[in-house]
Write a structure and sequence with these properties.
It is found in: Endoplasmic reticulum membrane. By secondary structure, the chain is an all-alpha fold. The protein has 6 helices and no strands. It has one domain.
Length: 120
């Protein structure tokens, strides 16, 4: 994950201006968000295939999806060493953003894998 800025430069700027607002590099923030988006999409696809192969139907498949996304959020926070303000502008970027974005991919691969494995 890309860090927003050198810590020494941030201390100098906050000392000069008097405000303690962190300064973010937009390119690094965008890169971090892309990484989370792609990771969530990949996990949605893999989770959908696993749910289909295991034969989950109905609510149980959606529970698996939300467990996978919750685990991914925890993993992203652990990767950032639980200091989310160093890599993101708010903690919602890790926890909530993209949580439902991979749901369509999950359902697509879930039904596809279920039909291939359990049709015969």
């Amino acid at each position: 994950m890309a860090v927003h800025e050198d810590g020494r430069a941030s201390e100098k700027r906050s000392g000069e201006d008097g405000d303690d607002m962190p300064i973010f590099n937009a390119e690094n923030l965008q890169s971090n968000m892309k990484s989370i988006y792609y990771s969530r999409t990949f996990l949605s696809i893999i989770g959908g295939v696993v749910a289909g192969i295991w034969g989950f139907t109905g609510l149980m498949g959606f529970v698996l999806y939300f467990l996978i996304m919750a685990t991914a959020s925890l993993g992203f926070a652990a990767k950032a060493k639980f200091s989310t303000h160093k890599y993101f502008d708010c903690w919602n970027r890790i926890v909530i953003d993209g949580f439902l974005g991979g749901l369509m991919s999950f359902v697509l691969f879930w039904t596809f894998a279920y039909d291939i494995v359990h049709i015969f």
